[in-house]
Design brief:
Helix content: 25-40%
Shape: globular
CATH superfamily of the largest domain: Aldolase class I
Number of domains: 2
Strand content: 15-25%
Number of helices: 14
Distance between the termini: 53 Å
Strand order of the largest sheet: 3-4-7-8-9-10-15-16
Largest sheet: 8 strands, parallel, barrel
Bound molecules: flavin mononucleotide, iron/sulfur cluster
Radius of gyration: 25 Å
Structural class: alpha/beta
CATH architecture of the largest domain: Alpha-Beta Barrel
CATH class of the largest domain: Alpha Beta
CATH topology of the largest domain: TIM Barrel
């Protein structure tokens, strides 16, 4: 069995699976139950300012029968009395010394208020602190949450107040509601944060009820923007993780969050550099028990791949991320249809005909439709294989032998050396030399 233990910015846990700061980590009852089921750590539901919630609070994006492909919420931070939270955090940590108990914090932007809160939090015996600079609704209107995370100067100012007095590791949790996540991440680094976590929820309006014309979720007829989470946000979270993990000016461990539903999702975050992962929506949907599959799945995969420790996995795919200008223009694939697997639904034909390059021919054979790719015209876009409902029926077959390589950046240099401008004619000449035909 592989060793799943991890150390994220000085916070150790027996496995990388942590509850994200959210409804599942709201109380001692829930956190202890989660630990019993195997979760390696928890980030306690954010505590700090006095707040009151409203109902309804959640809205779901259901896609073709899939419940909660995305989850929208207008919930605030913990609405339980702060003293109750402190008492329960201390009790939980005492009962579970080997698990990571991290406390998420958010208060108004005053040095004394932040430092008092940090000291009281450390007194609970917790393993770390997470600064919630991400809440995009409600709290941000009061100058907290995303209102801090969106301004790198505020981000570093408050982090500095915290790191000045904290004796436990400090994680800064970032909002994705920015144009470039690296700037607040660098600000956190400058202020001596020990780690970054990302992403918090994305600003969104989940939908409108076509019967009542009310915004969802409706609070007595009124609605507004909320935070978006769940499976639909995973690609955005992976991208932001990769940006921060590749940035030498950040150079901090990252706890990955956003749309993690199973061990495969979690492993993708690890491969892009996360040293722990946090989960909210999937637990709200399926319960704490999902961690059992996450642990088993990651363990089996690591054994299969020969990875012995989590450090063998963390960041393993990061070097593969590159800029478009460094991709090989001469790499060539075309679609191939396995006629034995085809169920003649014609979806690939329609997609290629209307949405791609009109290079699947629809013919008839033995009384049913037959779809055949005209290879010479296929641009290898992959659309047909994505829409095909039969696993393995359409595959993208490599046509180049890998011996030739020319990236866009290299091509521009070549043109420069040859005294050529970047014109359509010169590009066409290069394509002709390499048998590339564009229709
Ligand atoms: C209902 C709800 C409440 C949340 N409350 C908090 C919170 O109090 N503090 C915080 O840092 N993040 C909060 N989050 C954000 C989550 O911790 C997490 O960053 C986000 O949901 C993305 O992860 P997921 O896709 O696994 O849900 C909340 C999310 C949801 C859905
Ligand atoms: S890969 Fe793209 S261009 Fe080629 S057959 Fe499929 S949809 Fe058409
Ligand atoms: S989408 Fe797949 S199953 Fe449907 S016709 Fe095309 S190849 Fe056959």
């Amino acid at each position: 069995m592989a060793d799943l233990s991890t150390n994220c910015g000085g916070i150790k846990s027996p496995n990388p699976f942590w509850l994200a700061s959210a409804p599942p980590s709201n109380s001692a009852y829930q956190n202890c139950k989660a630990f019993e089921q195997g979760w390696g750590g928890t980030v306690w539901k954010t505590i700090g300012e006095p707040v009151m919630n409203v109902c309804n609070r959640y809205g779901s994006l259901d896609v073709n029968g899939m419940k909660i492909a995305g989850l929208n919420n207008i919930e605030l931070i913990s609405d339980r009395h702060i003293d109750i939270n402190f008492k329960e955090i201390a009790e939980t940590k005492k009962l579970w010394p080997d698990r990571a108990v991290i406390v998420s914090l958010m208060v108004e932007s005053k040095k004394e208020t932040w430092q008092d809160l940090v000291k009281r939090t450390i007194d609970t015996g917790c393993d770390g602190i997470e600064l919630n600079y991400g809440c995009p609704h409600g709290m941000s209107e009061r100058g907290m949450g995303a209102a801090v995370g969106q301004v790198p100067e505020y981000c570093s100012m408050i982090t500095e107040w915290v790191t000045e007095v904290s004796t436990v590791p400090v994680i800064v949790k970032l909002t994705p509601n920015v144009t470039d996540i690296r700037y607040p991440a660098r600000a956190a680094k400058k202020a001596n944060a020990n780690a970054i976590s990302l992403i918090n929820t994305i600003n969104s309006i989940i939908g409108i009820d076509l019967d009542t014309l009310e915004i969802k979720p409706s609070v007595a007829g009124k609605g507004g923007h909320g935070g978006y989470a769940g499976p639909a946000v995973k690609p955005i979270a992976l991208h932001m993780l990769s940006q921060v993990a590749r940035d030498s000016k950040v150079d901090l461990p990252v706890s990955g969050i956003g749309g993690i539903n199973n061990w495969r999702d979690a492993t993708e975050f690890l491969l892009l550099g996360a040293s722990s992962v946090q989960v909210c929506t999937a637990v709200m949907h399926h319960g704490f028990r999902i961690v059992e599959d996450m642990i088993d799945g990651l363990n089996n995969w690591m054994d299969e791949k020969g990875f012995k420790t989590l450090n063998d996995v963390i960041g393993k795919s990061l070097h593969r991320i590159d800029d478009f200008g460094n991709f090989n223009l001469l790499h060539k694939t075309t679609a191939h249809i396995d006629q034995d697997k085809c169920i003649h639904c014609n979806l690939c034909y329609i997609a290629c005909e209307d949405g791609a390059h009109q290079c699947i021919d629809l013919t008839e054979e033995n009384g049913h439709n037959k779809t055949v790719v005209r290879e010479e015209d296929c641009v290898g876009c992959d659309l047909c294989s994505i829409v095909c409902p039969v696993e393995g029926c359409i595959s993208m077959v490599r046509k180049d032998d890998g011996s030739e390589q020319k990236t866009w950046n290299e091509l521009l240099l070549q043109f420069k050396d040859e005294g050529k401008e970047l014109t359509w004619e010169n590009l066409a000449e290069f394509q002709k030399q390499h048998g590339i035909v564009i229709h």
